[in-house]
Design a protein that fits this description.
The chain is 31% helix and 23% strand. It has 16 helices and 16 strands.
């Protein structure tokens, strides 16, 4: 849905209202949480207690600057609404995460990437300014060079524990009407990763990602904007994008459909809801979208339908949810993939090359700016061995990521011990920011939120 635009005055009025609400809650000594309808966390948490600050109305684009290629956008604006507005001007955000429901502020507070990340880095690297509502009840403007620069760089991967981004200024790039895709198959992992590396050095490409279907079926997808197309494919209903990768060496999509090519089937996870079966899919068009899958998942967590269905079928087993995105340095990618096939076995796997766009350091998600990383995205449930406890597979992934000098995002389940966790996510810097911007601990603690799920 097109959410339209706000004027700067409308934004200022909403900001004043939410600041007053927060300060009233702080004056009562209430604990504070973020009230919103969207979430892209793949972990259950205890229900937030205390006063929920309603920020759902911060969901509009404020301005699009065609000359300077910048947009001002409110933090709860979904990337779907954001891109609809920028495409009216022939522009797109430099990096658009793969699901329509992801919000601009959420992508800044968390970690988000896509197939343009080999050129522009992670989503937070495309943000040039933001206004943050802090736990102390103030709104501060954060830039790379002003007195709040430490918060600017420490905000990514903080998941709302340092503040909420009410407004962000985001870099845009020119977009054309269509995108041309080329899918190339590789039978050997070493050659595949070499080809990914080579593709990332090409100046004529706008997008690079890949899909690993099994040990001998690895696809590199390269794409670029084009003005015209001999045909246009559609993967928003009966046809499934990821199944086209092996079937169509060359393909064309509109720019809008390209950036949301994964949303219709939540990559390939729609299979877990039966929505890749042709007959069911024919009648299920309104549910072929990521926002519907989120609802299905929340209902399943609440009512445990999948577990009950297994018991009705006489199946007694425990499954572990293995839902992760991990960044692995290119030179270790083959080793990680070999481990993954042997120890975890989920198929397919998404591959997304990422390289920092600058020498800037983001302490809570620190990557080597001179290193090309490959993001491995894998999302499914795996049957636990007899006697194994929840975390059996996820802990193996975390250990391998550490061994290979990688990084993992915190949107899903995390099993790190506290000492190891803070070695990865820079406790001294984080604590400095908490002391300055949330001295009463109003917004909670990152370890407590992501590991202990509080």
């Amino acid at each position: 849905m097109d959410q339209g635009k706000d004027t700067p005055q409308q934004y200022e009025e909403k900001k004043a209202s939410v600041v007053a609400e927060l300060n009233q809650a702080l004056a009562r000594g209430a604990t504070v949480g973020l009230g919103k309808k969207t979430s892209n966390l793949f972990r259950s948490r205890q229900q937030s207690a205390g006063h929920l600050i309603d920020v759902t109305d911060f969901n509009r684009v404020i301005s699009v600057d065609e000359e300077n290629l910048l947009a001002e956008v409110e933090g709860m604006t979904t990337f779907d609404a954001f891109t609809r507005e920028t495409l009216k001007h022939g522009l797109l955000p430099a990096v658009v995460p793969e699901l329509k429901s992801i919000t601009v502020g959420g992508a800044m507070a968390g970690i988000a990437i896509e197939s343009s990340s080999f050129k522009y880095g992670l989503v937070h690297e495309t943000v040039v300014a933001m206004e943050v509502l802090t736990g102390s009840g103030a709104v501060v403007t954060c830039l790379r060079t002003n007195e709040h620069k430490e918060l600017f760089f420490g905000f990514p991967n903080s998941y709302g524990t340092l503040g909420y981004a009410l407004k962000l200024t985001v870099r845009l790039v020119p977009a054309k009407k269509f995108v041309e895709l080329k899918h190339e198959k590789f039978d050997v992992a070493e050659a595949y990763f070499q080809a990914v590396n080579k593709a990332c050095s090409r100046k004529d490409l706008d997008f690079v990602d890949g899909t690993v279907f099994d040990e001998h079926s690895q696809y590199l997808t390269t794409a670029r904007f084009v003005d015209s197309a001999p045909f246009v494919s559609h993967y928003t209903y009966l046809q499934i994008y990821y199944k086209s990768i092996a079937a169509r060496p060359v393909d064309y999509l509109t720019a809008y459909d390209y950036i949301w090519r994964w949303d219709t089937d939540w990559f390939w996870c729609s299979k877990n809801f039966g929505l890749q079966k042709p007959l069911l899919r024919f009648f299920a068009r309104p549910w072929l979208r990521s926002t519907a899958y989120w609802k299905f998942m929340r209902w399943n967590r609440k009512y445990q339908w999948s577990e009950k269905l297994l018991r009705l079928r006489g199946v007694e087993r425990q499954d572990e949810s293995v839902i992760q995105d991990v960044q692995i340095p290119l030179e270790h990618a083959h080793e990680f993939l070999a481990f993954f096939h042997q120890a975890i076995g989920i198929k397919p796997v998404w591959i997304c090359p990422t390289k920092s766009a600058s020498q800037d350091r983001y302490p809570t998600y620190n990557l080597n700016p001179d290193q090309l990383y490959l993001n491995f995205g894998f999302w499914d449930v795996v049957p636990l061995p007899a006697g194994a406890e929840d975390g059996f597979f996820n802990r193996q992934v975390e250990q391998k990521v550490d061994q290979l000098q990688g990084r993992k995002s915190l949107y899903s389940t995390v099993f790190y011990q506290e000492k190891a966790f803070w070695q990865h996510y820079d406790r001294p810097n984080y604590q400095m920011l908490k002391d300055r911007y949330d001295p009463q601990g109003t917004l909670g603690d990152l370890y407590e939120k992501t590991v202990r799920r509080r």
